[in-house]
């Protein structure tokens, strides 16, 4: 961590001022549009314009009573939670294996496991679409869950690997030497210690699925329309204030996710420092 | 992993109680460990292969496979096999075509073949479907004449050349078309005609938009990353949270936000009118302005994070040394600080560029018809106009570009994966 010096010369003062002012402009650019959408969701008018004609909760009422948004939320939760569970289990196991020993073609295996992060989603989406359509998996929850698991698992592999890199393997050995069966050792000793990594991987996987729209556009039928899928058509066809209400709920969700993640990061830091 | 020659290895042949040497037993234990490790990786590996690698391999295969004509017109193709392309094909070819088309009409394979040929030559759909509907009877005396009376194009060599080109089982047609090339009647590769040559334009636009967005991101990310790297931890943490909040906000929420802010009645237009800069609202969305603004907003955190981690590692002593040796601060910044940022700048730029060229959702929602990028056309050919060969070929181009750029990226960053949060 660098220690800032008091700006001494004029040009240093100028530099500091420039950094501050341009940073403020950039941060404003990042945050203002997101913040601007929130008040609109409480508008009593039909149009997405300022100044607001009055305060009302009608768009939230619309949200809670519509036949579109609640099923979409339900679908998103079904897909998101299932994909997260699958991705977390598979990703954690894989990270432990990758961390444990070298085996032939390990770099290649690693690259393959992480490649869903790099390949443009549209390519994954059409590949899956061509592949699933003949198997009857297009227009099904199974297809969507499988695709989202693939997209989310790399995050779990990365976060768990990062935690395992600081994990003291002696702990697992101690458990084994004290007579714990491998599974007992895993659940009672290893898992609790790597839990922050597992949990933040799971959060990433859930966020990925919960915000994924390209695959959903291709392979979700009318019965599986997810929240992002509904938002996509909402924005494209006629953007109305209900969308701002959905957006506000989603912004709140991301704040919660961010707080959870920050909590996990601090916990992980404490644990690894203690080790 | 091998311990041969290591201090642990006992003299060769040193036998233990049960007759196996320690070396053998150690090697066995090592192998078991490898097998166990691989066993843990295997479930995810299998899952990724089956539901990711194979589908993508399937997509790549679709970009070169050509099955419509072999399915619908097998006899015609085998009759055309030794046609030299100089004169019109023999009467036998016309007879085979008559039989094939009549059958294809009944089987329902004619329309797929007609569509496939129409990709190559405009107007082929009506030609094939017309002939399939009124295929001359098998006992027609002059088959060629009968075809010509259906449509004079049956008397052109190009027609038969196009049919022969689509003989399969493999074709370079889609891949060539993806870069605005095609075979002419003689088989030489030439530029596609004007009305079809749109993909290089799309590719160029994709690169141009991505490059502009990358530079905008760099310009905007630099001061924020620098601020975070040079201020006390408390300030840096606060700024980090302000950066991560949009990063974690749904892409669709951010896109919707820009639609609201940039629309004709939106805040930006109101502000500009209030400031007296413009008199009437200007169009800021559903055009390239909207695409650039929204994409820069979405991708900015991906530039800030790698820049920040590079800058954080730069020791302030170098700058102080440069200044104390008499360099004016701006010179010290340019000559000492900036060069040390270059790895972060390169990594951030490549990352943003790689992500940008694959973008679909944002341009689709805030761009106009002329601002759509490669991904849009891939999705369009997959779902709207069902031309899976073309979708796959464009996908192959995008995938190859991404891999090349990622190869450069991982060399630079050292094979590490993209780091998030």
Give me the secondary-structure topology:
The complex is a heterodimer of chains A (275) and B (421).
Chain A: H1 10-40, H2 58-65, H3 69-100, H4 106-118, H5 121-132, H6 141-165, H7 169-177, H8 182-210, H9 214-219, H10 227-237, H11 241-274
Helix pairs in contact in A: 1-11, 2-11, 3-6, 3-8, 3-10, 4-6, 6-8, 7-8, 8-11
Chain B: H1 22-62, H2 68-72, H3 74-80, H4 91-107, H5 110-120, H6 124-133, H7 143-150, H8 157-165, H9 173-178, E1 181-183, E2 189-191, H10 199-230, H11 233-248, H12 251-262, H13 267-274, H14 288-313, H15 316-324, H16 329-357, H17 361-366, H18 374-384, H19 388-413
Antiparallel strand pairs in B: 1-2
Helix pairs in contact in B: 1-19, 3-4, 4-6, 5-6, 10-11, 10-14, 10-16, 11-14, 12-14, 14-16, 15-16, 16-19, 18-19
Helix-residue proportion of chain A: over 70%
Average pLDDT reading of chain B? 87
- Individual helix count of chain B: 19
- What is the alpha-carbon Rg of chain B in Å? 31 Å
What's the β-strand tally of chain A? Answer: 0
Strand content of chain A: under 5%
The helix-and-strand class of chain A reads mainly alpha
Question: Can you tell me the residue ranges of chain B where pLDDT is under 50 for at least 5 consecutive residues?
Answer: 1-16, 416-421
Average the pLDDT over all residues of chain A and give the rounded result. Answer: 87
Distance from N terminus to C terminus of chain B (CA atoms, Å) equals: 34 Å
Q: Which structural class fits the helix and strand makeup of chain B?
A: mainly alpha
Number of helices of chain A: 11
Low-confidence parts of chain A lasting 5 or more residues at pLDDT below 50?
none
Q: For the largest beta sheet of chain B, what order do the strands appear in spatially? A: 1-2
Q: Name the biggest interface.
A: A-B, 100 and 103 residues
Quaternary organisation of the protein chains: heterodimer
Distance between the termini of chain A: 23 Å
* Helix-strand topology string of chain A: HHHHHHHHHHH
């Amino acid at each position: 961590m660098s220690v800032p010096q008091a700006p001494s010369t004029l040009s240093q003062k100028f530099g500091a001022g420039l950094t501050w002012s341009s940073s403020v402009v950039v941060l404003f650019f990042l945050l203002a549009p997101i913040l601007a959408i929130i008040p609109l969701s409480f508008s009593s008018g039909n149009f997405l314009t300022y100044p607001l004609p009055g305060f009302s909760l009608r768009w939230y009422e619309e949200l809670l009573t519509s036949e579109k948004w609640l099923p979409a939320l339900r679908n998103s939760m079904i897909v998101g939670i299932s994909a997260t569970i699958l991705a977390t289990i598979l990703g954690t196991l894989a990270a432990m294996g990758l961390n444990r020993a070298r085996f032939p073609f390990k770099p290649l295996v690693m690259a393959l496991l992480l490649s869903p992060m790099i390949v443009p989603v549209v390519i994954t989406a059409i590949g899956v679409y061509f592949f699933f359509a003949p198997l009857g998996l297009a227009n099904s929850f199974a297809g969507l869950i499988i695709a989202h698991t693939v997209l989310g698992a790399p995050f779990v592999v990365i976060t768990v690997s990062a935690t395992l890199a600081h994990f003291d393997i002696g702990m697992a050995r101690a458990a084994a030497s004290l007579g714990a069966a491998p599974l007992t050792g895993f659940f009672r000793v290893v898992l609790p210690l790597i839990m922050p990594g597992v949990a933040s991987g799971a959060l990433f996987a859930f966020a990925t699925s919960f915000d994924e729209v390209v695959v959903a556009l291709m392979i979700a039928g009318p019965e599986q329309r997810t929240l992002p899928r509904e938002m996509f058509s909402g924005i494209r066809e006629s953007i109305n204030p209900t969308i701002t209400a959905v957006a506000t709920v989603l912004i709140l969700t991301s704040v919660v996710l961010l707080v959870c993640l920050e909590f996990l990061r601090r916990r992980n830091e404490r644990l690894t420092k203690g080790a | 992993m091998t311990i041969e020659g290591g201090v642990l290895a006992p003299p060769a042949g040193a036998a233990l109680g049960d007759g196996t040497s320690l070396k053998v037993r150690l090697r066995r234990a090592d192998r078991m460990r490898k097998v166990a490790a691989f066993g843990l990786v295997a479930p995810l590996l299998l899952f990724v292969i089956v539901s990711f690698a194979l589908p993508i391999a399937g997509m790549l295969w679709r970009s070169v496979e050509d099955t419509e004509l072999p399915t619908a017109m097998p006899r015609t193709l085998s009759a055309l096999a030794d046609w030299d392309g100089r004169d019109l094909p023999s009467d036998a070819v016309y007879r085979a075509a008559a039989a094939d088309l009549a059958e294809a009409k009944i089987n329902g394979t004619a329309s797929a073949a007609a569509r496939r040929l129409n990709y190559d030559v405009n107007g082929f759909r009506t030609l094939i479907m017309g002939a399939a509907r009124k295929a001359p009877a098998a006992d027609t005396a002059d088959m060629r004449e009968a075809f010509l009376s259906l449509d004079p194009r049956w008397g052109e060599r190009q027609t038969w050349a196009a049919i022969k080109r689509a003989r399969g089982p493999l074709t370079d047609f889609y891949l060539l078309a993806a870069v605005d090339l095609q075979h002419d009647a003689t088989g030489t590769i030439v530029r596609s005609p004007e009305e079809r040559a749109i993909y290089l334009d799309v590719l160029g636009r994709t690169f141009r938009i991505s490059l502009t967005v990358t530079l905008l991101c760099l310009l905007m990310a630099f001061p924020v990353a620098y601020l975070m790297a040079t201020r006390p931890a408390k300030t840096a943490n606060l700024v980090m949270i302000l950066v991560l909040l949009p990063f974690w906000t749904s892409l669709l929420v951010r896109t919707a936000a820009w639609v609201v802010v940039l629309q004709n009645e939106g805040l930006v237009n109101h502000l500009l009118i209030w400031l007296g800069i413009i008199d009437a609202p200007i169009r800021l969305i559903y055009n390239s302005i909207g695409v650039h603004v929204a994409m820069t907003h979405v991708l900015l955190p991906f530039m800030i994070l790698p820049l920040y981690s590079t800058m954080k590692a730069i020791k302030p002593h170098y700058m102080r040394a440069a200044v104390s040796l008499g360099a004016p601060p701006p010179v010290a910044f340019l000559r000492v600080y900036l060069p040390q940022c270059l790895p972060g700048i390169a990594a951030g730029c490549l990352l943003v560029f790689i992500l940008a060229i694959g973008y679909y959702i944002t341009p689709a929602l805030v761009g106009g018809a002329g601002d759509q990028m490669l991904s849009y056309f891939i999705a369009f050919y997959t779902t709207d106009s069902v031309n899976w060969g073309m979708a796959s070929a464009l996908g192959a181009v995008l995938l190859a570009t991404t891999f090349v750029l990622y190869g450069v990226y991982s060399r630079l960053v050292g094979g590490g994966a993209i780091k998030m949060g």
